[in-house]
Write a structure and sequence with these properties.
By secondary structure, the chain is of the alpha+beta class. The chain folds into 3 domains: about 5-50, Sandwich (Immunoglobulin-like), CATH 2.60.40; about 70-150, 2-Layer Sandwich (Phosphorylase Kinase, domain 1), CATH 3.30.200.20; about 155-330, Transferase(Phosphotransferase), domain 1 (Orthogonal Bundle), CATH 1.10.510. The protein has 7 helices and 15 strands. It has helices spanning about 120-125, 155-160, 175-190, 250-270, 280-285, 300-310, 320-335; strands at about 5-10, 10-15, 30-35, 40-45, 45-50, 75-85, 85-95, 95-105, 135-140, 145-150, 155, 195, 205, 210-215, 220. Strands 1, 2, 3, 4 and 5 form a 5-stranded antiparallel sheet that branches. A 5-stranded antiparallel sheet has the order 6-7-8-10-9, with no helix packed on it. Strands 11-13-14 form a 3-stranded antiparallel sheet. A hairpin with a 2-residue loop joins strand 6 and strand 7. The longest helix has 17 residues, at about 175-190. Keywords: ATP-binding, Kinase, Nucleotide-binding, Serine/threonine-protein kinase, Transferase.
């Protein structure tokens, strides 16, 4: 079966080919797609984009007011949609909006001081389209309930490594997804925050639109207040290098290495240290200053250049802004 497609804006050809029919748009107009399957031609209904999406400005990334407690009586709790060592996640509704409610059992030392939990202190001040929004929270008995928007999709971990992923990622969408991850992380760094646990499991992708958000700020820190020694290890070792494991003050280049790991896994569908069978081997490689082999990315040369720029000694790595710029070029190439 031969499939060909062509995209048009206001009757003007934009993109055609045989690989996929995914198109990213950022200009107003009437869009439609013509698909030819063997000798049968089908045309989609016109999609009108009335206005160009504005760029994210500094004013748009700030809360009008800091997020705080909400009244649990206004929340309708529904089915359990996730469960793990942290607790459970329910789907729900709040003021007509679909939400996810994460329930965390508080340890005794936080029962009377739960509002000062570091994750809440950081998360409640953040607002960016590529960071999972904290809508509010409340305490019920010995548990903390955290309310966020419901993301109808999956995390990258399942999309990359599950034998039966919830939905398929088109190759054309990968630069767009990664651009959003880098955009959210760049915002964190501008706010002097290091995520410290970037990995595919902490990246959520919406099924219909590929809108992507970073989640889980449980070990995130402000760079100015982070301690420099006797620091307990935070994050996931598979996505960290030596500097993250030696008690150094958290710095942006630590997240840059993790972004490189995410990009590598998304494009190769392999673990970044696929030859490692136990933590001891990983520890030995990291402390001998080895970096993952990127030969598997040779067919994606521009992506390989980005990953190689992340897998360097800390002070030589790309900045998150440089990664963002390089990914933006790749996304622009996919638009038309």
């Amino acid at each position: 079966m031969e499939v060909e497609y062509a995209w048009y804006r206001d009757g003007v050809p934009l993109k055609q080919g045989r690989k996929s029919c995914l198109l990213f748009v950022n200009e107003p107009g009437r869009y439609h797609c013509v698909v030819k399957v063997n000798d049968n031609i089908k045309q989609s209904e016109g999609l009108i984009i009335e206005a160009e999406m504005p760029p994210v400005s500094a004013d748009m990334t700030k809360h009008d007011e800091i997020v705080g407690e909400i009244d649990e009586n206004h929340i309708e709790m529904k089915d359990v949609i996730g469960q793990g060592t942290f607790g459970t996640v329910h789907k729900g509704e709040w003021r007509g909006t679909e939400i996810a409610i994460k329930c965390i059992t508080l340890p005794p030392e936080w029962q009377n001081d739960w509002q000062n939990i570091k994750e809440l202190q950081i998360w409640r001040k953040l607002r960016h389209p590529n960071l999972l929004l904290l809508m509010g929270y409340f305490k019920k008995q010995d548990s903390l309930w955290i309310v966020t928007p419901f993301i109808s999709g999956s995390n990258l971990e399942k999309l990359i490594f599950s034998t039966e992923p919830p939905f398929q990622l088109l190759d054309d969408a990968k630069p767009y997804i990664l651009y959003q991850v880098a955009s959210g992380c760049h915002y964190l760094h501008e706010e002097q925050i290091i995520h410290q646990d970037l990995k595919p499991a902490n990246v959520l992708v919406e099924k219909r639109t590929y809108r992507t958000v970073i989640c889980d700020f449980g070990v995130s820190v402000f760079t100015m207040t982070a301690v420099t020694k006797n620091t307990a290890h935070a994050g996931t070792m598979m996505y960290q290098h030596k500097e993250s494991l030696t008690g150094k003050r958290p710095q942006p280049y630590m997240d840059v290495y993790a972004i490189g790991c995410i990009i590598f896994e998304l494009y190769t569908s392999k673990r970044v240290w696929s030859d490692i069978v136990n933590p001891g081997q990983l520890f030995a490689k990291i402390f001998s200053n080895e970096y993952p082999n990127t030969d598997g990315l040779k067919q994606h040369q521009k992506i390989k250049e980005i990953v190689d720029g992340c897998f360097k000694d800390p002070m030589e790595r790309l900045s998150m802004q440089e990664i963002l710029q390089k990914l933006n070029i790749l996304v622009d190439r996919q638009k038309y």
